[in-house]
Amino acid sequence: ENGTLMVDEMNDIRIIGAITVVILLGISVAGMEWEAKAQIVLLVILILAIGDFVIGTFIPLDSKKPKGFFGYKAEIFMENFGPDFRDEETFFSVFAIFFPAATGILAGANISGDLADPQSAIPKGTLLAILITTLVYGGIAVSVGSCVVRDATGNVNNTIVTELTNCTTAACKFNYDFSSCQTGCQYGLMNNFQVMSMVSGFAPLISAGIFSATLSSALASLVSAPKIFQALCKDNIYPGFQMFAKGYGKNNEPLRGYLLTFLIALGFILIAELNVIAPIISNFFLASYALINFSVFHASLAKSPGWRPAFKYYNMWISLVGAILCCIVMFVINWWAALLTYVIVLGLYIYVTYKKPDVNWGSSTQALTYLNALQHSIRLSGVEDHVKNFRPQCLIMTGAPNARPALLHLVHAFTKNVGLMICGHVHTGPRRQAMKELSTDLAKYQRWLIKNKMKAFYAPVHAEDLRDGGQYLMQAAGLGRMRPNTLVVGFKKNWRQGDMRDVETYINLFHDAFDVQYGVVVIRLKEGLDISHLQGQGSKSPSSPLNLADQRLLDASTQFQKKQGKSNIDVWWLFDDGGLTLLIPYLLTTKKKWKDCKIRVFIGGKINRIDHDRRAMATLLSKFRIDFSDIMVLGDINTKPKKENIAAFEEMIEPFRLHEDDKEQEVADKMKEDEPWRITDNELELYKTKTYRQIRLNELLKEHSSTANIIVMSLPVARKGAVSSALYMAWLEALSKDLPPILLVRGNHQSVLTFY
């Protein structure tokens, strides 16, 4: 008012603002008690200032009339009631500047951790604050709009008139002509930012009230923002900000957050243009309000039992409308600032979604995901299965998922984003101990699957043995239509050294799977699958290296995590099992790591019909829309295998033979009853042709597919109870030994491929 400046107008704002924010920082650092005391002092000053203004409106002085203040007049109220925007200002440009005055709504929620009873205090305090603020803002606007005209010169000599000519403003009725203000004036509602001081009874108290209001808002923001930021950092959502999670003192004060907020505030103070800063602040506040409104709506939409709003008049659709209005107003105020805000918020959201921090807030997104999954599962249950929608849904007998990573990654390669994958783990042993392990393992291994980006479920069960556990899983795993239809097991590499009762259990698991209409896949790597004895030894120091076999096993366990390169997937389709043996290789080639691999198809045939069989198979594959690089018809598939290979097979099965012809009938019968897995002489002779076929197939596999990335082959099956477990395991051993990774596949004879 008096033109007293330290440097100039803009730099004075910077100097005073910087000093003020330093003082506020000191109050914040001192703790919540000092902040609360400071807020009470500021509130008292603010109430006195408002009272001073209200009293002043009833005391019109002649000295104030040239400045446009005439007391309560209906004519002034009516003139000021309508809009009169100037200098390219609009409703929304003024709204953007005024909006920060109403941004204290979240002040209580922001310091909820320091409130004695936040559940009661926040809604009462927030609603009362909104009500009182609305009444005060509205009352002051109406009061000043009823007392002061829009334009006044402030010049006593030039404004008093004796004759009124062409004067139509409200001031004219009170013998004042401010028509000269068309070229600009210093006073009036449109020109004088200190109009409340002019109206008041004691002007300095209004300045104190303005300071009180602004300092109160600044102090609330300076205290609450760091506390929210500290909570965010404690969740480690953005690891780069972890340092700001540390608290100090008995109240766990976020001193580092206070300092960061102070620096941000200081940066905006140095801009020194309130009208430039206000729209930016308004946009971010509107964005936060939009998100809060939408979060509340989303929580209601998710129908989570934990979402129980206590506010009697709450309505989810009002929340949605509020969110939409906030977004619209953001663009109306300042479109480029709104876009910038959206980009920042979206970037933060994408980062959190991608990183998937290990935090659990019981979010509405989680609740809605559950609701959608439940609704879609129920809807899916009412739809009949169709061959066009068949997808391999695999129950993998992995044990602990991290014990057989190669098995897991290979199956994941053809089920990812296509079908269900459940990792079955059978716990045996004392029931009480096993049940404790179930609960801890469920959380532990499901987290492991998520961390390793496996789209799979972990399903542990307690049972007497593997077979019982497998039966439980095949009967109970899954939900509605999302149930496994294919059992996947690793090849039992050590079957000759182990207890043959375990082999009996292993083979019976296949028969159980066929009984419940499952397909069966047996996966074998020549190095083996189980690395549980090597857990934590992958990074051993050079002073204690792994032995060669273990090193090869460890290397093989990661081979399906790498890009497979330009090689072949060899499909040996020897039986029509419904098409599963063809579907799995096709699904593999649709994945990024396998897309460069070509499918080669091998079939059995007669030497005099090789061309005919090749053309017929090519036609069939074309109708199935399965790309292939080559088809090979093997006319010598039924040729007798080499003598040395037959001898090796006989040597392998020798320890498991019964040799009943060399024993008394009673002794042989008792031995067969006690050890049903033993191979009888009669059985061996009866299935000699099938035995030779497995040995011969292994010879052909070594001849044609030794360089393939992976082999997919029809699994030989034997009638339940007709073939002993030892002989069947010997067939699988003879068929699949010394080869690249091989999948032995047998569908349940239901079609999984269609021409249409």
Descriptive terms for the model:
ten-stranded mixed beta sheet; 756 residues
Describe the protein:
This protein has 756 residues and is α/β, with parallel strands linked by helices. The protein has 5 domains: 1-43 and 202-272, no CATH class; 60-200, no CATH class; 273-382, no CATH class; 395-473 and 485-531 and 547-562, 3-Layer(aba) Sandwich (Rossmann fold), CATH 3.40.50; 566-740 and 750-755, no CATH class. Helix content is 51%, strand content 7%. The chain contains 26 helices and 10 strands. It has a 10-stranded mixed β-sheet, sandwiched between helices. Strand 2 (421-427), helix 16 (431-451) and strand 3 form a beta-alpha-beta unit. The model is unreliable at 538-543 (pLDDT under 50).
Percent strand equals 5-15%
List the domain count as a whole number: 5
Strand order of the largest sheet: 3-2-1-4-5-10-9-6-7-8
Distance between the termini: 87 Å
Question: What structural class do helix, strand and pairing data support?
Answer: alpha/beta
Global shape:
elongated
Which runs of at least 5 residues are low in confidence (pLDDT < 50)?
538-543
Major beta sheet summary: 10 strands, mixed
Mean pLDDT over the full residue set: 84
Question: Could you give the count of β-strands?
Answer: 10
* Percentage of residues assigned to helices: 40-55%
| Number of separate helices | 26
User: Rg, please?
Assistant: 41 Å
